[in-house]
Amino acid sequence: MKKIIKTMMYSLSLALTLYAGNTLAAANEAVIALAKKEQPALLKTMKELVDIESGSAEFAGLEKIANLLAKKLQALGAKTELLDAGPEIYKMFDTPEKIGRMVRATFTGTGTRKILLIAHMDTVYPLGMLSGQPFKIEGDRAYGLGIADDKQGIAVILHTLTMLRSLNFREYGTLTVLINGDEEVSSPGSRFLIEKLGREHDAVLSFEGGGSPQVDQIRLATSGIGAATITVRGRASHAGAAPHQGINALYELSHQILQARDLSNPKVGQHLNWTMARAGIVRNMIPPGAQAQADVRVDRVSDLDGIEQTLRERIKNKLLPETEVTLDFERRRPPLQATDASRALGAHAVRVYEELGQKLDLRDRPTGGGTDAAFAALSTKAPVVEGFGLRGFGSHSTNAEYVLITSIEPRLYLATRMIMDISNGKAPLQ
Ligand SMILES: [Zn+2]
Fold first, then answer.
1. Same-domain pairing of 376 and 347
2. Are both 379 and 342 inside the same structural domain?
3. Ligand 1 centre distance from Cα of residue 403 (Å)
4. Are residues 303 and 171 in the same domain?
5. Residues designated catalytic
6. Which end of the chain, N or C, is surrounded by fewer C-beta atoms within 10 Å?
7. What is the pLDDT of residues 86-127, one digit of tens each?
8. Ligand 1 centre from 313 Cα, in Å?
């Protein structure tokens, strides 16, 4: 009898062990199966999004895509709103007359954790370029205008939400989605709300592209971007008859550029390059005006201040004292800097990817590009991680923007599992 009981106990514990093992595997299998199921639907969504031309300055296209997204998010169970940019707007030289509206979707769950998912719907392309880059599939590549930057990001968010719904997963407190329409012009209207939402959430996942065909990656850092413009005012005069009565703005501008060409410090990720210049009106007039612009990239917020200060000092040293020299310094975006919290959450993403037997590269130095993740991180200690979108290539190009179709399933798995683990406290947030 004792032996029988012992055998029964053993069988029971074995059964329990197997059962526990199975449910753990089953949970992941369920997510894997759903990711597989969502893959063709995600491709369809990307086509739908690519087919709407939504350059940052194309308000009608942005309205169309914003309405479509609001409808899709609502169908997934969210409370959705279309939000005007502002009231505060950080105006830059290329800020469109009418900034596209943002789509905010809020899902309320049964837990406490607040998670923010961001992506953008605008592209760098002016109207009419779709015919040059229509949606098409060739082998492992899905091509299309703005598909990598960032329509794939929106599609990954939408289908991750579909998967969570299929799993009946609602263990988050609040799941907020924000899709803006002004990222490619440095977010003049959405930066304030993104910063505020970043502050109000416990974790931020940003869905710009997740690396290249060579590297499967998420990122903890992005570059800060500035634009420095030096404007010189001189005096016009006949270049043949009375050059001495003029003040040559081009001479002064040349002097100013040359004395500000040593502000890069690659060791700390600081780069300043003069990239554009114009001067004069006609050949036979001493140029009364001249202007040059520099592209500025930094890894650290404080470096933008440092560069501006140095430039303000430098321009006081003039070649032609009678000229007027002014500096305009635009802070187009801050850098995203890696923190202990984002490193910990990033490491968790690497572990989630390992469940698929795949290796995820966790990058903590910027690659030179800047994104809205930096605004989300500007005034919070919560982790902000960039690059949850698909792997791709050819952003901001004229003929070859594509994403890798084989990256869809692992990326859907990753985003879904991250939201689940953050919600139920399995992913570290500090
Ligand atoms: Zn982008």
1. yes
2. yes
3. 13
4. no
5. 122, 183
6. N
7. 889 999 989 999 999 999 999 999 999 999 999 999 999 999
8. 34
Q: What is the DSSP string of 133-152?
A: S--EEETTEEE-TTIIIIIH
Beta strand extents in 283-401 (DSSP E only): 285-286, 289-298, 324-333, 361-363, 384-386, 392-393
301 lies in the same domain as 285: yes
Give the number of other Cβ atoms within 10 Å of residue 362's Cβ.
18
Together in a domain, 108 and 164? yes
pLDDT given at position 367: 82
8 A C-beta contact, residue 429 and residue 382: yes
* Enclosing domain of residue 282: 224-333
Q: From ligand 1's centre to the CA of 241, what distance in Å?
A: 53
- Is residue 430 one of the residues assigned to a domain? no
> Mean pLDDT throughout 213-218?
97
pLDDT at 138: 97
Query: Any residues with CB less than 8 A from the CB of 9 and at least 6 apart, and which?
Result: none
- Nearest CA to 53 out of 139, 112, 117, 135 is that of 135
> Other CB atoms closer than 10 Å to residue 30's CB: what's the count?
14
What are phi and psi for residue 392, nearest 5 degrees? Answer: -165, -165
Please check whether residue 148 lies inside any domain of the structure. Answer: yes
Both 176 and 80 in a single domain? Answer: yes
**C-alpha 149 to ligand 1 mean position (Å):** 4
- Mark whether 254 and 289 lie in a shared domain: yes
Element (H, E) at 240: none
| Closest residue by Cα to residue 49 from 141, 183, 181 | 181
Q: What digits encode the pLDDT tens for the residues 298-353? A: 999 899 999 999 999 999 999 999 999 999 999 999 999 999 999 999 999 999 99
Structure tokens, 92: 């830059």
Token pair 């959405």: residue: 190
What's the confidence (pLDDT) of residue 49?
98
Instruction: Kindly give the distance from the C-alpha atom of residue 222 to the centroid of ligand 1, in angstroms, as a whole number.
Output: 12
120 C-alpha to center of ligand 1: Å? Answer: 6
Rounded CA separation 118/242 (Å):
60
pLDDT category at 400 given cuts 50, 70, 90 is confident
CA of 421 to the centre of ligand 1 (A): 26
- Quote the CA–CA distance of 64 and 79 in Å, as a whole number: 19
Å from CA of 382 to ligand 1 middle: 22
What's the gap in Å between 19 CA and the centre of ligand 1? 44
Asked whether the predicted pLDDT for residue 16 surpasses 50, the reply is no
pTM for the predicted model, two decimal places = 0.88
- Tell me what pLDDT residue 190 has: 97
Instruction: Check pLDDT > 60 for residue 7.
Output: no
Give the domain-ending residue among 287, 313, 333: 333
CA separation for the pair 218, 239 (Å, rounded): 57
